[in-house]
Amino acid sequence: MAWEPEIEELRRRREFAEGLGGEDNVKRQHDQGRLTIRERLHSLVDEGSFQEVGKLTGQSTFEDGELRKVVPAPYVMGLAKVDGRPVAIGGEDFTIKGGIAWGSSRRKGGQGGFVEDLARQYRIPLINLIDGSGGSVTSAQRRGYTVFPGVHGFEQSAALLAEVPVISAVLGTAAGGPAGRAILSHWSVMVKDTSHVFAAGPPVVERSLGEKLTKEELGGPQVAVDKAGTIDNMAQSEEDCLAMIKRFLGFMPQNVWEAPPVLPASDPPQRQEEELLSIIPPDRRRPYNMHKLIGLVVDRDSSFEIQPSFGRSVITCLARLGGYPVGIVANNPMVYGGAMDAASARKQSHFIDLCDCFHIPLIYLVDIPGFMVGSKAEEAATLREGMRCVYVGLQATVPMLTVVIRKCYGMAGMATCDKNGLDMQIAWPSAEWGSLPIEGGVAAAYRREIESAADPKQREQEIEAELRAFSSPFLTAEAFQVEDIIDPRETRATLHRFIEAAQGRLKTTLGIKHKAGVRP
Amino acid sequence: MASIDVKSEITGTIWKIEVKAGDKVAEEDVLIIIESMKMEIPVLAPEAGTVAEILVKEEEPIKEGQLLARLHT
């Protein structure tokens, strides 16, 4: 047979690639409760669908002209299918020198890597399985010079955010470049106990600031996900993480030139839940479970919450309604009474951008008393983050529907409607709205009258009662200032009809969304 | 036995205390209700356990991050 030695060499070289960093290093990875990059790839993608690119990359050593071994480049990537859909996918191989940047003139992955070219040129989603610590000072010794920050091709990472879904999973300790790569995503996830993410790890922090912190204290999910919202979601395990990637991807189109995937309705759109009638307590000071309310309205078990532990006064989730993908923005009365703080404003802004980019209609379930108040809130720039959220909402052109469940007040209330579209507000009978809630507003607006009354407390209550007489939502509906008031049980069916009708608009407004102006 | 600190997520006033030391609670049971933003905001048990101590009184003003109670799990 011709070419036999070469075919044999190819087989051996592929074997070296499959062997990753060698048995000992693979064992160490497993002992830490982590999968290898090849195991991750194979458990995520459809069986037999992985078409590797660049499998032969690495550094070979020869003895007496004979190939002894190849240390593979610490990045594995290629094309694959996830639930039947082509994706570009890749990740660092931590078993080879901790997945540090490889230093070839053509990068396989990371910012500006080939895997990003694949995603961009073919207009398919990009999945980054991140497990690397970025550049190392040792590369300067090898090259003989230091590198200017930002490799050529970095602009690709930014451009992708307007074109195809980019998903990043942090599956180990990510610092520097790989950590930054995780943030340049539409959605990011990390794993409890085994993942950390930071601009720089504990040794650098100790040298710079004298702070002695563990990796967990510096960049575990309690910081990166819950407190900072640097990473969107936390997974309980690597398996859970890979399952979450599939769920997120299930809502996304292949690219912005295609509509998001519609599934056959698994749950009757006309379903009416009696429980919706009693979910709002008659006492308007009492909160209720907005997560439960969302579950009663959208298709059963379809909801996938983004950033569940950050900025919790707003709930943002992807869900389906009669099979159509929708983005839900719902205020959570259990946290800050549903008031928008800096964190929830940032979260809502990102979510609106995400849904607008991929043509997923938005549904607002509104119960918002306004921006969060007080010294902490002012110091956190709630007003600025909040107005940015209003601005982002105004820039978005995807269809939006508003259901006012209870309160809708003030400027934060402006962040819950579609001024560019129908500007339609549907309300439940429990709804109330205005520029600010009556209680606080009366004391401010009628201060003189109240102070000069014989019994100021009583006068304040009288004025409140007089004003409350105007606050019936039915009076606003008479004036067509809200488009309808519905029986709460009709919410699902009503929203479904509008979402269904909006599909034609969605299909004819696909493509990249260019946004002008300066965000406040 | 682990001890869990229950802290307030918001500045406000203690409206009602729903449990006392020694009470057994399930995860997400209401321990204390805070009045803030003109709402009654419940403080829920982060895990199931026994109430070890309550560190606030009704009508007491509290700050964000203030320790309200301890649970033993």
Brief write-up:
The complex is a heterodimer of chains A (520) and B (73). In chain A, 38% of the residues lie in helices and 19% in strands. Chain A is built from 23 helices and 19 strands.
Q: What would you note in describing this structure?
A:
The complex is a heterodimer of chains A (about 525) and B (about 70). Chain A has about 525 residues and is α/β, with parallel strands linked by helices. Chain A has 23 helices and 19 strands. The mean pLDDT of chain A is about 90. Chain B has a single domain (about 5-45, about 55-70), classed as RNA polymerase II/Efflux pump adaptor protein, barrel-sandwich hybrid domain (OB fold (Dihydrolipoamide Acetyltransferase, E2P), Beta Barrel), CATH 2.40.50. The model of chain B has no long low-confidence stretch (mean pLDDT about 90). Chain B is an all-beta fold and about 70 residues long.
What profile does the largest beta sheet of chain B have? Answer: 4 strands, antiparallel
Pair with the biggest interface: A-B, 18 and 12 residues
CATH topology group of chain B? OB fold (Dihydrolipoamide Acetyltransferase, E2P)
Number of domains of chain A: 3
CATH class of chain B: Mainly Beta
Strand runs of chain B, count: 8
Structural class of chain A: alpha/beta
Radius of gyration of chain B, whole Å: 11 Å
Low-confidence stretches of chain B: none
What is the mean predicted local confidence, pLDDT of chain A? Answer: 92
Give the helices and strands, then pairings:
The complex is a heterodimer of chains A (520) and B (73).
Chain A: H1 4-18, H2 23-31, H3 37-44, E1 51-52, E2 58-63, E3 66-72, E4 75-82, E5 85-92, H4 114-122, E6 126-130, H5 138-143, H6 154-160, E7 166-170, E8 173-175, H7 176-183, E9 187-191, E10 196-198, H8 202-209, H9 215-219, H10 221-227, E11 233-235, H11 238-251, H12 275-278, H13 290-297, E12 304-306, E13 314-321, E14 324-331, H14 342-357, E15 362-368, H15 375-379, H16 382-395, E16 400-409, H17 410-414, E17 425-427, E18 432-434, H18 438-445, H19 447-452, H20 456-468, H21 473-478, E19 484-485, H22 491-501, H23 503-507
Parallel strand pairs in A: 5-6, 6-7, 7-9, 8-10, 9-11, 14-15, 15-16, 16-17, 16-18, 17-19
Antiparallel strand pairs in A: 1-4, 2-3, 4-5, 12-13, 13-14
Chain B: E1 3-7, E2 12-17, E3 24-25, E4 30-36, E5 39-44, E6 49-54, E7 61-62, E8 67-72
Antiparallel strand pairs in B: 1-8, 2-4, 2-7, 3-6, 4-5, 6-8
